[in-house]
TrEMBL record:
InterPro entries: CFA/CMAS, SAM-dependent_MTases_sf. It comes from Crinalium epipsammum PCC 9333. This is Methyltransferase type 12. SUPFAM superfamilies: S-adenosyl-L-methionine-dependent methyltransferases. CDD domains: AdoMet_MTases. It comes from the Bacteria. One of its GO terms (molecular function) is methyltransferase activity. GO terms for biological process: methylation. Keywords: Methyltransferase, Transferase.
């Protein structure tokens, strides 16, 4: 018996540590019991903060810096608050309407200020690439997209599908680089689609070139007259609950020799993770898939190459968003959030501070971004 198999055999009987999928029933139930305690403590601290408890940022940061490395390194099972996080759900995505309400249909004025809204880089709610020396957010987002172009091997004349196209930043940037590329974007958020429709009428935007088609709706209902040379999806798969069904659908849109590029938050722990806080206030039914999750699904699409991007990149991106959010309080405080603004601000500051520290934890080696290049299986 090798040392690894011996260790795994021992871990079957130990709660809290290692891969929860291999636990004996007793160890599994003990682990889930401990998770419920962690969930209760997490929400108690978060609710106290968002309901007015004065906590200096450095204390909040210190709390995250103390606990997150311990969880990532030794007790990753405690970071899966619900059983459904550990496996695929029955549906491709869960809680889509709640997600739109809490996250993507917020006042555009606030999102523009936080995420940035330039002539070429529209609001982009995903990781920027800082490790190549970018000096500001716009440059870091451009370098991230240049990196995607290279990895996906985009060629002029490609027909590209963007699954979850956000505010159209990715299509706009790539269309600016390739005069014969055509793009189709799928988006479930009506507010984001309205933003893009405005850009499609703006002569200064590449979305108005006639080479961009917008589909407002769910991936499950989408059908197209053509197949695509390239499909990309940046950030959306954190909201996809069933990789098998999603890959089956995307494969049906892909040319025989086409390629799919997926960029998601990913964790290099034995289990997928989430949190009760983000589930309630930020990303309903969202999860961070384990780094091996995408390659393990190879029925309709198979992974031929993958990359792990250190969490430093997303930590720095969140830190910039936090700074932007704080610097524009005079403007964003009077917008409509469906709740008292002081509470909304605390909800979002807790989330932003947490994720700055979360992605920086353990030198960014446990929690970062995964990128996957796939072709027909």
């Amino acid at each position: 018996m090798t040392s690894n198999s011996f260790l795994q055999d021992i871990e079957k009987y130990l709660p809290l540590v290692g891969d929860v999928h291999i636990k004996t029933p007793l160890a599994y139930q003990a682990t889930r019991g401990a998770v419920s305690v962690v969930n209760t403590l997490q929400m108690a601290a978060a609710e106290a903060y968002i309901n007015g408890l004065e906590v200096p940022d450095f204390l909040l940061e210190g709390l995250f810096d103390s606990f997150m490395p311990v969880f990532f390194r030794y007790f990753p099972s405690l970071l899966a608050p619900y059983d459904w996080v550990l496996k695929e759900t029955d549906h491709l995505a869960e809680g889509s309407k709640d997600l739109m309400k809490l996250q993507y249909d917020l006042p555009q004025g606030m999102l523009n200020k936080m995420l940035g809204d330039g002539q070429l880089i529209y609001p982009k709610y995903s990781m920027a690439l800082w490790e190549k020396g970018a000096s500001n957010l716009e440059q870091a987002q451009m370098q991230m997209l240049d990196d995607v172009i290279e990895k996906l091997d985009i060629k002029d004349g490609d027909r590209i599908l963007d699954f979850g196209c956000g505010w159209g930043c990715v299509p706009n940037y790539i269309l600016s680089k390739f005069p014969n590329v055509t793009f189709t974007g799928i988006n479930l958020s009506h507010e984001q689609c309205e933003y893009m429709r405005g850009k499609m009428q703006d002569p200064a935007s590449y979305l108005s070139s006639g080479r961009f088609t917008l589909y407002e709706g769910d991936l499950n209902d989408a059908n197209f007259d053509q197949k695509f040379d390239k499909i990309l999806s940046i950030g959306v798969f954190c909201h996809v609950g069933n990789l098998t069904k999603a890959f089956e659908k995307l494969a049906s849109f892909l040319n025989d020799n086409g390629k799919v590029f997926i960029h998601i938050i990913t964790v290099r722990t034995p289990n997928h993770i989430s949190s009760v806080y983000t589930h309630q206030y930020i990303f309903p039914h969202g999860r961070f898939w384990n780094y091996d999750a995408v390659p393990s699904h190879n029925k309709d699409l198979k992974t031929i190459k993958r990359w792990y991007l250190n969490g430093y990149n997303y930590s720095t991106t969140f830190a910039t968003w936090l700074k932007n959010f704080d610097n524009h309080q005079a403007i964003v405080k009077d917008l409509e959030y469906g709740m008292d603004y002081a509470k909304f601000r605390r909800i979002w500051r807790f989330y932003l501070i947490w994720f700055v520290r979360n992605f920086a934890s353990c030198n960014g080696e446990y929690n970062g971004n995964g990128q996957f290049l796939l072709v027909h299986a």
